[in-house]
Amino acid sequence: MPEGHTLHRLARDLTDAFAARGVRVSSPQGRFADEAALLDASTVESAEAWGKHLFVTFTGERVVHVHLGLYGSFAITAGVESVPAPVGQVRLRLVAADDERATYADLRGPTACTLMTPAEQGAIVDRLGPDPLRPDADPERMVERVRRSRAPIGTLLMDQSVLAGVGNVYRAEVLFRHRVHPLRPGTAVRRRTLEAMWDDLVGLMEEGVRTGRIDTVRPEHTPEAMGRPPRQDDHGGEVYVYRRTGQPCFVCERPVRTDVLATRNVFWCARCQPAYRPRAVQ
DNA sequence: AACTCATGCGAAT
DNA sequence: TTCGCCTGAGTTT
């Protein structure tokens, strides 16, 4: 499930599976049927991710824009002898086949699946903040936006126009790793803290692309190092605070706290991430 | 079997 | 601020 690392991994895998190949394009569910018919039997040029947005470019300057939302999925199955009948509501199916084997990808439950022009793609990208997974990203844009805003840092990190690709797990975890309380105003987060958080996100999210999961605990806090049972959970990775409400902090043993911020549950340790206490105004 | 909640976000109210 | 998307894992009945 999708934060930025999921989309970048998917872009890489779709490119490997389909780029420069002729593809059959269909919409078994029907909701993308007209567009699929226009694309059918053309060639995929590439797939690319910006933040949580995925763009699959076909010949003729046609771009399929996909956003998975909260529970969408785009599953690639390579090297099958025959392509099975669709299971569930498949919005978009891509199939590349030679005489022997077929590779197919099924898109289910996306928030967005639309056919657009490169110019329209550009307009979406222009609305996004820098993406830690893009080598050309400029972290200074994020730093400036945060430091000009009195909104809580926990809200700003989820704002895709401030920073693209971070979702609810990376938000909670990067704040913990840098000992920043989620409600601290952007204006009160030090520049060097924001720069360190950016660098940290680059490393964490690149690892996420490699492994397909979100792992944020440092070596000294892994299950093996601490002799604790590994997390058994739907996202699979080892984390400090995300969805650990009431359980002891791995660093200080205080129970993890939660509240709602930017319409989503946020998690933090009240000791490791002390509350912001503004100095009295003169 | 039914229900709840979730790594998200745009549209409707 | 609430709703809808309409998937899927985990929990409760």
UniProtKB/TrEMBL annotation:
Matching PROSITE patterns: FPG_CAT (PS51068), ZF_FPG_2 (PS51066)
Cofactors demanded by this protein: Zn(2+)
Residues annotated as domain Formamidopyrimidine-DNA glycosylase catalytic: 1-111
InterPro entries: FPG_cat, FPG_N, H2TH_FPG, Ribosomal_uS13-like_H2TH, Znf_DNA_glyclase/AP_lyase, Znf_FPG/IleRS
Stored SMART domains: Fapy_DNA_glyco, H2TH
EC class (word): lyase
Domain FPG-type: 240-274
Entry keywords, A to Z: DNA damage, DNA repair, DNA-binding, Endonuclease, Glycosidase, Hydrolase, Lyase, Metal-binding, Multifunctional enzyme, Nuclease, Zinc, Zinc-finger
EC number of this enzyme: 4.2.99.18
Any GO MF annotation of the entry: hydrolase activity, acting on glycosyl bonds
Top-level taxon in the UniProt lineage: Bacteria
Pfam families registered for this protein in UniProt: Fapy_DNA_glyco, H2TH, zf-FPG_IleRS
Family: Belongs to the FPG family.
Annotated protein name in UniProt: DNA-(apurinic or apyrimidinic site) lyase
Source species taxonomy: Bacteria, Bacillati, Actinomycetota, Actinomycetes, Propionibacteriales
